[in-house]
Amino acid sequence: MRHTYSHIDLDERRKIARWRTAGISVEIIAEKLGRHRSTIFRELKRNTFVDKLIPDLNGYYCVTAHDMACERRAKLRKLAQFSHVRQSVIDRILHGWSPQQIAGRMRLERHPISVSHETIYKFAYSADGQAIKLWRHLPEHRARRRPRHA
């Protein structure tokens, strides 16, 4: 059975903020939005504003939460944004390096732009990676990724 997932949008974040201010429980908010309660808990944990200087300002604000989520999402596109990093990753994969080795070497060399091994795998199995058949040079040589918990 396949599930389709969608990111929480600004409208849903407005509802979450309004209902949390009204004191409604996370379980009821999740039910009203048609999402799992862990999704709402994760949203509140990851996107709650914290001010160390003025703790009274701490809280969940929908616009701030949306900006935080968008900023975090933009960081995932490093290989698309930085062509020199992308080319370096491709070259190393073609020379037989594993994604773990590439990510580890970038951290060791303290590159200003580093990527995780998971980002490299996602790139290798993306449309761009499939076009140049990067998967053939990965340790497992699979054309498709297996689900983690299958």
UniProtKB/TrEMBL annotation:
Domain Transposase IS30-like HTH: 5-47
A biological process term (GO) from this entry: transposition
Domain of life: Bacteria
Stored InterPro entries: IS30-like_HTH, Transposase-Integrase
A single GO cellular-component term on record: cytosol
Single GO MF annotation: transposase activity
Pfam families per the UniProt record, alphabetical: HTH_38
Listed name of the protein: IS30 family transposase
Species of origin: Rhizobium leguminosarum
